[in-house]
Amino acid sequence: METLPPSFYGPIRDPNLKRQSNYKAYEWMALLHWYILPIGIELEFNTTLLENFSDFVAIVETAMTIQSHSMSDLACLKQLVIKFLQGYEKYYVGNDPEKILRCRLCIFQLIHITTHIRWYGSVRLGSQATVERAIGELGHKIHSKKEPFANLTNIMIEHELIKVLQLYYPELIPESTGKNIIPDSGRLMQPLKLQNQDWNDPIGHLSVIKQYFVATNCFANTREIDVQSWNIHCFGKLKMKNQQTLQSSYSNSQISIKTTRYSRWFEAIKPNAQLGEVFGEAIAFYSIEYENHIKLMMVYNPLGQLYAPLQTVICGRWSSPNQLAATETVHIQNLIGVWKAESQNIYVLRKHPGLLDLSPAESGAASLDLDENN
Fold first, then answer.
1. Looking only at Cα atoms, what is the longest distance across the chain?
2. What is the pLDDT of residue 18?
3. Cα 294 to Cα 231: distance, rounded to the nearest angstrom
């Protein structure tokens, strides 16, 4: 799917590696967190059932995210679990004793999630996919045919000793290779050469940027600024602080090799501490120098008419091509994917937090680097 960034899922399955749990996790997350609810909305499934399933999705996302929780957060999560279980029993069992088989342990054990988080932390740490992946990684390191279990024990002890030493001596933690410190505003990449007529702003990019400067009071007397006095450079990509690369329509148009996956959709916050989020498609990036100030800007097509049909679903529609907007790159938060339905509704697909625990190879880092070089 070309509108789902390559960093959202792993590389193509290699059966020779015999590591299948990773792919089952991706397939499960794709259906649960991205596609079932939007498809159900578009096919006009029963709204009550979709709301109940949305509660289940919210529970799983919270349980599988490695983060701290306050007691009030856990209390709210428990109430959500109770609401889901009561709804599940009402809609799928009711008063029919023949449907009692639907009351599976895997459903009703959700009531213990809050206790598990309070005692042991995120469920993600002990999930099936995490454990199977760890076993698989250790299994590939066993070289002793005579005493494989002793070899496995030594490997595990060595790993734990290294972790303990790194806790006592943080300087022993190796730095990530190839990952330099990136400022909050990101780093612009892929300089683009525009024709002379493009600098006359026929498509309104500079006008949109100036409107942003006026609205946010970036410079004194912004209304009187002549855009011809700006020192302007155009770029095709942005390397964000979280090491993700945001592409743009300009960068994709200059790629000679046809790619099947793009990463030009984003999530950002509004400027000047305004509440709310902004979603859109990046068109181009600009470095603008004026009065010894350098602003890194992005021109984008905003996703308008935003609404949340369910608590875990965000939907909207693309604005017309002549309704572009601009923002500073420092406000960009994350990559997103999008799914366009036949109704022209655009659904936001956020990267699930559980993907952060995958290794670089499993998270598709190699594929992502290949796309960035194109």
1. 81
2. 58
3. 9
Report whether pLDDT(229) > 90: no
Cβ atoms within 10 A of the Cβ of 25, count?
24
Region of 294 please: left (phi>0), alpha (psi -120 to 50) or beta.
Answer: beta
Position 330, amino acid: V
Give dist(CA 155, CA 157) in Å, integer: 6
Q: How far apart are CA 371 and CA 374, in angstroms?
A: 5
pLDDT tens for each residue of 237-271: 999 888 888 988 888 776 666 667 788 999 998 88
Bridge partners (DSSP) listed for residue 318: 303
| Torsion angle in degrees (nearest 10) through CA of 162, 165, 169, 173 | 10
Please give the Cα distance from 212 to 200 (Å, whole number).
18
Q: Tell me if 269 sits within 8 A of 226, measured CB to CB.
A: no
Q: At 310, which helix (H) or strand (E)?
A: strand 293-310
CB 109 within 8 Å of CB 59? no
- Give per-residue pLDDT as tens, 97-118: 888 888 888 888 899 999 988 8
Q: With the CA atoms of 215, 218, 223 and 229 taken in that order, what torsion angle do they form, in degrees rounded to the nearest 10?
A: -140
CA-CA distance, 336 to 281, in Å (whole number)?
10
What's the CA gap between 273 and 158, in Å, rounded?
Answer: 47
β-strand pairing of 277-290 with 231-239 = antiparallel
The reported pLDDT for the residue numbered 223 is: 61
Q: Which residues contact 310 (CB under 8 A, 6 or more apart)?
A: 37, 41, 50, 51, 54
Cα torsion 7, 28, 15, 360: sign: positive
Tokens standing for residue 223: 């209304």
For the CA atoms of the chain, what is the radius of gyration?
Answer: 24
